[in-house]
């Protein structure tokens, strides 16, 4: 039997991936959550004498089998589908090609604006917005005051706002 420590580690490390795996298999997040829970229950219920070389792989095998059992118990019936011709008039909520083109143009303007910032201002903006560093850690890294970092970020945001408007 796997120790509680191993089960806890598996759960914390792989529960999100397991739920995603199951959601892709069964097409429902709530069902995926239930099957993921059941997968861990079955993993913990294994006989004491069995050892596993790869508990993660075994967990996903259990989950896959549960997804197959789910489909067998809840088969898709043709009457659940409607005729596509009935829904031709419905507009898609997906963005159209115009919106994609506009987004690409705006992204290109933003990229040029960031590249047009003064070097120190650009470096601080990138480290903060894209690398996720705090203002204090950037100040420490560059050997400048926190106030200077704040001023560079304000300058960058004002410049970027002007370029996007």
Walk me through the structure.
It is a single chain. It is flat and about 65 Å long. It has helices at residues 4-26, 29-44, 55-73, 97-115, 119-129, 135-142, 146-164. With 165 residues, the chain is mainly α.
Helix count, per DSSP?
Answer: 7
What are the low-pLDDT stretches, counting only 5+ consecutive residues below 50? Answer: none
Q: How would you sum up the global shape? A: flat
What structural class should be given to the helix and strand makeup?
Answer: mainly alpha
Number of domains: 2
Count of individual beta strands: 0
Strand content: under 5%
Topology pattern, helix = H, strand = E: HHHHHHH
Give the fraction of residues assigned to helices.
55-70%
Question: What is the CA–CA distance across the termini?
Answer: 62 Å
Mean pLDDT, to the nearest integer, reads: 85
Radius of gyration: 26 Å
Give the biggest beta sheet: none
Task: Explain briefly what this protein structure is.
By secondary structure, the protein is mainly alpha-helical.
Could you outline the blueprint of secondary structure elements for this entry?
Elements: H1 4-26, H2 29-44, H3 55-73, H4 97-115, H5 119-129, H6 135-142, H7 146-164
List keywords for this structure.
165 residues
């Amino acid at each position: 039997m796997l120790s509680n420590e191993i089960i806890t580690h598996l759960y914390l490390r792989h529960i999100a991936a397991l739920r995603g795996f199951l959601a892709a298999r069964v097409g429902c997040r709530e069902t995926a959550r239930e099957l993921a829970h059941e997968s861990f229950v079955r993993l913990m219920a294994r006989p004491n004498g069995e050892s596993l070389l790869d508990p993660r792989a075994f967990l996903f095998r259990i989950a896959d089998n549960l997804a197959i059992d789910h489909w067998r118990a809840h088969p898709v019936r043709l009457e659940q589908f409607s005729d596509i011709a009935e829904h031709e008039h419905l507009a898609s909520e997906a963005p159209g090609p115009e919106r994609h083109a506009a987004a690409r143009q705006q992204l290109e303007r933003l990229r040029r604006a960031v590249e047009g910032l003064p070097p120190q201002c650009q470096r601080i903006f990138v480290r903060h917005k894209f690398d996720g560093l705090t203002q204090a850690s950037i100040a420490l890294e560059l050997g400048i005051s926190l106030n200077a970092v704040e001023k560079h970020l304000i300058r960058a945001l004002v410049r970027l706002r002007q370029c996007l408007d």
